[in-house]
Design brief:
The protein has 124 residues and is mainly β. The chain is built from one helix and 13 strands, in the order βββαββββββββββ. The protein is globular and about 40 Å long.
């Protein structure tokens, strides 16, 4: 069973920054396509940033230039650095891991395992 543990959420003001981490096992980290998703109240879950083990990444247009996804190999963690946050970034952020099936348009494809989520709140 895949375990994904998110941390780093919180409350910030507009233009603030937060860093989310998703810790997992070494095998999951090395062998999985991993991604960050988010879900705002009343909205569907959407992909934020995807990371393939071979280094490929893809971002939601709404976060390009502000968010950066990376892999912390020392700690088997997927990182989401979020800068210049906006109120519309407010959501529960989820980490996901799945097979190495990649779409240049959508990122990680296939059935995923999910973390418990972490709340990000941006106030104006």
């Amino acid at each position: 069973q895949v375990e994904l543990v998110e941390s780093g959420g919180g409350s910030v003001q507009t233009e603030g920054s937060l860093r989310l981490s998703c810790a997992t096992s070494e095998s999951t980290f090395k062998d999985s396509c991993m991604a960050w998703f988010r879900q705002a109240p009343g909205k569907e879950r959407e992909g934020v940033a995807h990371s393939h083990p071979d280094g490929r990444t893809i971002y939601n247009e709404s976060v390009k230039g502000r968010f950066t996804v990376s892999r912390d190999t020392a700690n088997n963690s997927l990182i989401l650095q979020m800068n210049s946050l906006k109120p519309e970034d407010t959501a529960v952020y989820y980490c996901a891991a799945g097979p190495q099936i990649w779409s240049s348009r959508s990122g990680c494809l296939g059935k995923k395992s999910w973390g418990q989520g972490t709340q990000v709140t941006v106030s104006s």
